[in-house]
Amino acid sequence: MLDAARNLALDKGVRAVTMTDIAAEIGVHKSAVLRYFETREAVFLELLTEGWAEWVDACVPAVEAAGSDPVEVARAIAETLSKRPLFCDLLAHAPMNLERGVSVEAVREFKLTSFGHIDRFVQAVTTALPTLTKDEGWSLISAVNALASTLWQITHPTAAVAELYRTDPQIGHAVGDFGPNLREQTETFILGLLARRGIGARP
To answer: N or C end: fewer C-beta atoms under 10 angstroms in the chain?
Structure first.
């Protein structure tokens, strides 16, 4: 079921996938899916939980390899996110939809599991950039989460809106490439944290 939901979401976006779609993809009635997942939001929240683990597993060694260069740390964060389109799409839906369509206990379990993965990310970043505090590491992941989720939606509009951007020069500049934008804005945030301590762009 999760594989079916994952494939459908990658094909047409999280927003467009229904429980009926998931059931049809695996050749069962919708009621069969509901035995395992109460709502579509529960399905995608499970995929988002997996996404946090997979991204952090990739991001931590990339950050470690970046050394103490904040620009390279930002690059590592952005590039590992750019390789995970479904995760970026899901990040936007978590607070708007997914957490609102499941039980409070399910939200609590999701948060605690995700926070465990985020702690590993924060440890890696504050080890690479030791002048950053743990609180600043959490501020960074909050910013990265907000940036990735928002930029993904902006840079992946519907086909009709994408055509509008392509054909109307007055608004075409409003959409850009996800990866470069995320890298630049993540770098800016990290350098801003360091600048508050009087530290330059590069050590």
So the answer is: C
C-alpha 113/C-alpha 191 separation (Å) is: 29
3-state secondary structure of 13: coil
Q: Over its length of 203 residues, how does the chain's per-residue pLDDT go in tens digits?
A: 999 999 999 999 999 999 999 999 999 998 888 888 989 999 999 999 999 999 999 999 999 999 999 999 999 999 999 999 999 999 999 999 999 999 999 999 999 999 999 999 999 999 999 999 999 999 999 999 999 999 999 999 888 988 998 899 888 887 789 999 999 999 999 999 999 877 554 44
Quote the tokens at residue 72. Answer: 């390279």
Check if the beta carbon of residue 189 is closer than 8 Å to that of residue 129: no
Packed helices 104-128 and 134-155: angle between N→C axes, nearest 10 degrees? 110
By CB atoms closer than 10 A (0-12, 13-18, 19+), residue 198 is exposed
Helix-helix angle 70-82:134-155, to 10 degrees: 40
Predicted TM-score of the model (pTM):
0.90
Q: Are residues 51 and 16 in the same domain?
A: no
**Burial (Cβ within 10 Å: 0-12, 13-18, ≥19) of residue 158:** exposed
Residues 20 and 65 in one domain: no
Q: How far apart are CA 49 and CA 107, in angstroms?
A: 11
Same domain, 3 and 81: no
Encoded tokens for 199 = 């530290």
